[in-house]
Amino acid sequence: MKFQTRLINFLLPFAAYLLFAFQWFNNYLKAWYANIPEETQYLRGALINPYIYYAWLFGITFLLHLTLGIAYLVREKTTRPLIYFLMSNLLFTSYYVFLFAADFPKWSRTGPLNFVILCLLGISIVRYYFTLYRREDRE
Question: Which DSSP letter does residue 47 get?
């Protein structure tokens, strides 16, 4: 498989992760500058507010994507479990991005950005799947 194809497969979800980080931080800044203190407590670790869990999930899945994605980029012959694990990581990421979007307050208007993030993740999952399909076809 060409390096350019593997690079695109790595960079599409990476862009989605960066957009989600931007969205999460932008949501925090809107709450901070609107002086809504109960909304800004999620960075301080309030147990009743679920936003801190989204931050932890983002960190864990982002680090998994970075480590496994770099392994996917470096290896010429990728293994099937590696691609399946990358696909499952992206599925889980799209699930919590959807939950984060559904949990938004009324004053936040980031619906189009959520749609772009979910589309990037979905396209990435399909590209990984077709990478497996093309690999099996050649062997």
Answer: T
CA distance 28 to 139: 49
Please report, for residues 42, 75, 100, 137, the alpha-carbon distance to residue 58 in angstroms, rounded to integers and kept in the order given: 14, 25, 11, 34
Query: What is the tens place of the pLDDT at every residue in 107-131?
Result: 567 778 888 999 999 999 999 999 8
Single-letter amino acid, residue 26: N
Question: Cα separation of 134 and 19, whole Å?
Answer: 29
Helices 51-74 & 80-102 angle (0-180, nearest 10) = 160
What's the whole-model pTM score? 0.78
Q: 120 near 12, Cβ under 8 Å?
A: yes
* Contact (CB, 8 A) for 89 and 64: yes
Interatomic CA distance for residues 68 and 88, integer angstroms: 12
Tokens of 41: 């407590």
Rounded Cα distance between 81 and 64, Å, is 14
